[in-house]
Amino acid sequence: MQDVLNTIDGRQVAAISGEWLDDVDPAIGETYARVASSDARDVETAVAAAVRAFPSWSRTPAPERSRALRRLARLIERDLEKLARAESVDSGKPLTAARTIDIPRAVQNFDFFADAATQFASEAHPTDETALNYTLRQPLGAVACISPWNLPLYLLTWKIAPALAAGNCVVAKPSEVTPMTASMLGELSIEAGLPPGALNLVHGLGPRAGAPLCAHAQVKAISFTGSTRVGNEIAREAASSFKKVSLEMGGKNPTLIFADADLRSAIPETVRAAFSNTGQICLCGSRILIERTVYARVRDELVERVRALRIGDPLEPRTDQGALVSRQHFDKVMGCLQVAHDEGGRVLCGGVRARVEGRCSDGFFIEPTLIEGLGPACRTNQDEIFGPVATLLPFDSEAEAIELANSTRYGLSASLWTRDLSRAHRASAALHSGIVWVNCWMFRDLRTPFGGIKDSGVGREGGMDAMRFFTEAKNICVKL
Ligand code: NAD
How far is the CA of 442 from the centre of ligand 1 (A)? Predict the structure, then answer.
């Protein structure tokens, strides 16, 4: 049985309590490793290490910090196959996806913010000829980075990289459900020569390890990605001590397909948007809104394509749909399917547990599901399911499409399909979401602001927004 250890002060260590959590391979339903179950004592040693490392790391010249991040990027690249396999086993996602999306993006995150470290600049405001104001952007100190299980290394590094690039020291709390690649990253950070304490990783449960980290007086900022419920708790905690917070939370994203869209691309991309990573991406389009004149055609083609998705062993190269991440999440999604059934939804395909032969016969698989016939206000169309389940709703006008799209408490992303240029701009501006994709989905440029509005988020990650989050602006006014 493998041990998943904390990285604290440049060393890999077990939790002080000596306690462990099970790490389960969801494709086979069996425990295959044990994870350090940290508590406030481990958090204390990690924060102390970060605080000790801060004066030196924050004064390290930016090009040197940049080189350290690049060394880490190269080591992730070197171990890409090993990391991809670990990510697939830990999360149930297809190995192909881990190899081509998750781990390459972790490399890209470090390379991108290695560049940002040397390109980050601040403003000057000359006040006529009487004074010169200039702004320093100073790193904060020890910061917390808390990440979820759906894109484990991808999202963890998306936070760690800008925090380090800006000169902060990090205490990260990866998801306890998928901790393996974070632990491997900890080892690589030591090999890359990051100074002890610059990057600390503390494993364990949210309330036991994450909560004391957020409450710690020496932690200056919290960058969180996860559920809206936990984000709410963190926001309350941070408010009482005036910590900076960035919250990336849940979504119930609409895909809007207008009759004039290029359906040859809209339909396959809508399937990708709904079912990538088994629907376990915050950006997944789980409400598919279709103009009534093309509704039947689009529905039938969607069903045909979704039925063709291959569910199976994540390690098989041909698998499109792997396992859900855990027994608990599997039960949650099955519960949502029951709710959809009780609400009177018509299941067009899927709707049941998927049976996979052989090694994965006890894994947590669900058939990709499309449901129609439900009103916009029902729970199925309001609650985030975060699984392979999407609903179809018809609309008659642009105004109705926008109203439906905006009718949830979430506001993360939307995908909009039309050939009408004016409508594309008009509708994009009217959608209540932080991100709109026109005639595409999840087409990313890491320089753009990333985040949601309403119950989906507070603040923006990405590009210089992340560098600004992880620094404090100080204005200096020099009277001339
Ligand atoms: P979660 O909120 O249960 O957990 C996220 C992290 O927070 C984990 O590391 C967990 O241990 C920790 N945590 C839990 N309770 C805590 C507490 N009291 N204090 C501090 N930390 C605590 O989320 P999850 O189930 O891991 O992930 C799925 C959710 O993440 C979905 O809602 C999804 O939409 C969201 N998500 C959002 C984005 C985005 O960019 N907006 C990206 C990916 C996932």
Answer: 20
At 130-163, the pLDDT tens digits run: 999 999 999 999 999 999 999 999 999 999 999 9
Q: Which of 442, 9, 458 is nearest to 231 (CA)?
A: 458
Per-chain mean pLDDT for the chain = 98
Is 2-249+456-479 in CATH node 1.10.8.10? no
C-beta of 230 in contact with ligand 1 (< 6 A): yes
Q: Is 115 exposed, middle or buried (0-12, 13-18, 19+ CB in 10 A)?
A: middle
Q: Which pLDDT tens digit goes with each residue over 61-84?
A: 999 999 999 999 999 999 999 999
Tens of pLDDT along 378-435?
Answer: 999 999 999 999 999 999 999 999 999 999 999 999 999 999 999 999 999 999 999 9
Task: Say what the pLDDT of residue 260 is.
Answer: 98
Annotated domain spans of the chain: 2-249+456-479, 253-449
Q: Is the pLDDT assigned to residue 445 strictly greater than 90?
A: yes
Q: Is 176 in the pocket of ligand 1 (CB under 6 A)?
A: yes
Query: Ligand 1 centroid vs 72 CA: distance in angstroms?
Result: 25
**Mutate which of 227, 333, 446 for ligand 1 pocket (most atoms within 8 A of beta carbon):** 227
Q: Tell me the DSSP string of 106-121.
A: HHHHHHHHHHHHHH--
Return the pLDDT at 65: 98
Measured between alpha carbons, how far is 161 from 73 in angstroms, rounded to an integer? Answer: 10
Catalytic residues: 248, 282
Three-class secondary structure of residue 98 per DSSP: helix
Alpha carbon distance 269, 263 (integer Å): 9
Distance, CA of 185 to CA of 429 (rounded, Å): 40
First-residue to last-residue Cα distance in the chain? 68
Q: Say which CATH class 253-449 falls into.
A: alpha beta
Mean pLDDT of 16-44: 98
Number of helices (H) and strands (E), helices first, in the chain? Answer: 16, 23
Q: How far is Cα of residue 255 from the mean position of the Cα atoms in its chain?
A: 19
Distance 179 CA to ligand 1 centre (A): 13
Question: How confident is residue 1, by pLDDT bands cut at 50, 70 and 90?
Answer: confident
Pocket flag, ligand 1, residue 172 (CB < 6 Å): no
Does residue 12 have its Cβ closer than 6 Å to ligand 1? Answer: no
Closest CA to 437 of 199, 184, 255: 255
